[in-house]
Amino acid sequence: GDGVDDIYRFSSHDDRMSILEHTLSCGHLVPTAPDTLGCFPFYKSDPFIIKQCPNVLFAGNQPKLTAKQIAGKDGQQVLLVLLPRFSVSHSCVLVNLRTLEYRELHISTSLGFQSPTSGSPEEQMDQS
């Protein structure tokens, strides 16, 4: 999701799904790296180039779950998925790779654990 976030931050695009779709059509997952997105600078080959059109392309840590099915450059079906941040949504997405249907799965527990809201790890240990 960093590539989508970086393009969102430094461009006039206001739709994250269109950004993800554009990265697929351009054939590059992270066109802003390493200029504005930290990564190791590769000089012999670029590992972020999309050489084959994927069946599913997703970006994590996005504000909300959004999905869209599009046709790839050779007519194949591609599912684009923006996944919400797990720590906020407590959900993941299951994708049927044969049909490209997806379903959001919410994960919860009734064990009564409470996550600490602030403080150092030592302070958190002292509170328990």
Helices and strands in order:
Layout: H1 2-10, H2 16-26, E1 56-62, E2 66-71, E3 77-84, H3 86-89, E4 91-95, E5 102-106, H4 121-127
Parallel strand pairs: 1-3
Antiparallel strand pairs: 2-3, 4-5
Descriptive overview:
The strands form 2 sheets. The chain has a 3-stranded mixed sheet with strand order 1-3-2. It has a two-stranded antiparallel sheet with strand order 4-5. The protein is built from 4 helices and 5 strands, in the order ααβββαββα. The chain is 24% helix and 24% strand. The relative contact order is 0.14. β4 and β5 (102-106) form a beta hairpin. α1 crosses α2 (16-26). Mean pLDDT is 82; it is low at 117-125. With 128 residues, it is an alpha+beta fold.
Q: How is the biggest beta sheet arranged?
A: 3 strands, mixed
What Rg do the Cα atoms give?
18 Å
What structural class do helix, strand and pairing data support? alpha+beta
Proportion of residues in β-strands: 15-25%
Counting DSSP H or I runs of 4 or more residues, the number of helices is 4
Q: What's the N-to-C terminus distance? A: 35 Å
Overall shape: globular
In the predicted model, the low-confidence regions spanning at least 5 consecutive residues are: 117-125
Quaternary: single chain
> Can you count the beta strands?
5
Mean pLDDT: 82
Specify the helix fraction band.
10-25%
- H-E order: HHEEEHEEH
- The spatial strand order of the largest sheet comes to 1-3-2
